[in-house]
């Protein structure tokens, strides 16, 4: 999947797709871009009724110039503990942040999450996040609240410490997958009800019935994968040398 900023050619394709009545998902599929990228591009450049490729391209150039003028000093490179190349760590952190953005995570939330993930402790205070990301305390507060609500981080306080710290652990994607599984259960139940109400033999009812069947199969596979992962983690812990 290509990354980076949209090109002028891609913006013209988006404009043409909107004119044809294509949705964000289909436009994204044809461009091999996430639907969320197309949605953000259109939303911040006039919406589907007013989107224009040339206007969007110029607006993007203007925003880039303004960001370069207003950009804060570059954050310090990460330390080189464990023999790591600090520049390589920073480049990876930035690329992983972009990947999170492509998955639909808002920018500040993606930056905070990536910052926590690359920290060996997986734990940082709000003050440390402010210092590392060079952003305001309010931005960090908003981001960590969002991530906590999504089950992606937790917060705790070290014994005797005054400040809370934010924690990311090895089960971050397990919790994220569990949240998706729970939503799929709700959607499957609603889809089955739709099939019953509309009639399983009707086109609309059959569509809902097929959706329910698919979601249930996906959830069965996810539950099997999660159980397999738990067993592998338990085995790894039991094999680890004891202090």
Written account of the structure:
The chain is mostly helical and 243 residues long. The chain is 67% helix and 4% strand. It is built from ten helices and three strands. The protein has helices at 8-20, 24-31, 35-43, 53-70, 86-102, 107-118, 126-133, 137-149, 172-198, 203-239; strands at residues 123-125, 154-156, 165-167. A three-stranded antiparallel sheet has the order 1-3-2. The longest helix has 37 residues, at 203-239. It starts with 7 loop residues before the first helix and ends with a helix.
List key phrases describing it.
3-stranded antiparallel β-sheet; mainly alpha; 243 residues; flat; 3 strands
Largest sheet: 3 strands, antiparallel
Helix content: 55-70%
Give the helix tally.
10
Question: Uncertain regions: pLDDT < 50 for 5+ in a row?
Answer: none
- State the order of secondary-structure elements, H for helix, E for strand: HHHHHHEHHEEHH
Q: What percentage of amino acids are in beta strands?
A: under 5%
What's the pLDDT, averaged over the residues?
86
Whole-number radius of gyration? 22 Å
Strands ordered across the widest β-sheet: 1-3-2
Count of DSSP strands: 3
| Separation, N- and C-terminal Cα atoms | 45 Å
By secondary-structure content and strand pairing, the structural class works out as mainly alpha
Shape descriptor: flat
